[in-house]
Amino acid sequence: MKPTEKEVRDAMRTLLYAIGEDPDREGLKDTPDRIIRMWQEIFRGYNPDKKPAITTFKNVNHEDEMVMDCGEYYSMCEHHVLPFFGQYAFAYLPDPDGRILGISKVARVVSYCAARLQLQERLAEDIIGMLNDALKGKVRGFAILLRGRHLCKTMRGVRSRGEMAVTLFTGEFKKNRQLRLEFLKMAEMIR
Ligand SMILES: [Zn+2]
C-alpha cells in the first residue's frame, strides 16, 4: 500500500535520527519535505503522467543513414541511492519504409528513464525499449553508449574516479562490427 505523506515524512525523520542528527533542529525542520518534493522530481520516471510523448514521422525520403544524438544525463544508482551521471551517445538506423524519430525527443526519453533508481546497463535497455516501442519495432538497429561517473564509487570505498561505460547494440549494429566502430568513433569525436 502506498504510504501517506506523513508516513514518508516520519521515515525521513527516522533516517536523519539514525545518522546522528536531530530532525527537530532549525536547519533540518523542512528537510524531510524538501526531500519528498525533490524525489518526486528526480524519480518522475516512475510516474506514467510524466512519460514524454515521442513524435515519429513517416520516412518520406526513405532515409537509411545513421542518425545520432548526444547529450548528458543524471540518474541515481539503485545500490546506494547516490547520483551517477555522464554523457550518452545514441544512434539508430531508420527503416527506409518505416518511420523516423523526432530526434529532439531522445533527450527527453533519456532523462525520463534516468529518473528512476537505475543501473547503467538497465538505463540503456529502458531507453532503447521506449524508442523501439515508439517505432513499433520498425527500425534497422539501435546503438547507445552511456558513460557514467558514480558518486558511490568516488565518495566512498575505493574512492576511484568511479567511471564506467556501457554499450548496447541491436539489429544491424549487433551484426555489423564496422557499423559499431563507426558509431563509437563518432561518439568519441563529439564527446
Ligand atoms: Zn552505487
Instruction: Catalogue the ligands.
Output: zinc ion
| Biggest sheet layout | 5 strands, mixed
Number of strands: 7
Low-confidence stretches at least 5 residues in length (pLDDT < 50)? none
Give the strand order of the largest sheet, numbering strands 1, 2, ... along the chain.
5-2-3-6-7
Number of domains: 2
Rg (CA only): 20 Å
**Tally of separate helices:** 7
CATH topology tier name of the largest domain: GTP Cyclohydrolase I, domain 2
Reading the helices and strands in chain order gives HHEEEEHEHEHEHH
Beginning-to-end CA distance, first to last residue:
44 Å
Structural class, please?
alpha+beta
- Kindly state the percentage of residues in helix: 25-40%
Work out the strand percent.
25-35%
Describe this structure in a few short sentences.
The chain is an alpha+beta fold and 191 residues long. The protein has helices spanning 5-18, 31-42, 105-114, 120-134, 151-154, 171-175, 177-189; strands at 56-58, 67-77, 83-94, 99-101, 117-118, 139-150, 163-169. The N and C termini lie far apart (44 Å).
Which descriptors would you attach to this protein?
191 residues, alpha+beta, 2 domains, five-stranded mixed sheet, two-stranded antiparallel ribbon
Describe the protein.
- With 191 residues, this protein is of the alpha+beta class.
- It folds into two domains: 5-42, GTP Cyclohydrolase I, Chain A, domain 1, CATH 1.10.286; 57-189, GTP Cyclohydrolase I, domain 2 (2-Layer Sandwich), CATH 3.30.1130.
- It is built from seven helices and seven strands.
- The strands form two sheets. A five-stranded mixed sheet has the order 5-2-3-6-7, with helices on both faces. A two-stranded antiparallel sheet has the order 1-4.
- The chain starts with a helix and ends with a helix.
- The structure holds zinc ion.
- Zinc ion (ZN) binds at residues 77, 79-80, 82, 150, 152.
- Zinc ion (ZN) binds next to loops.
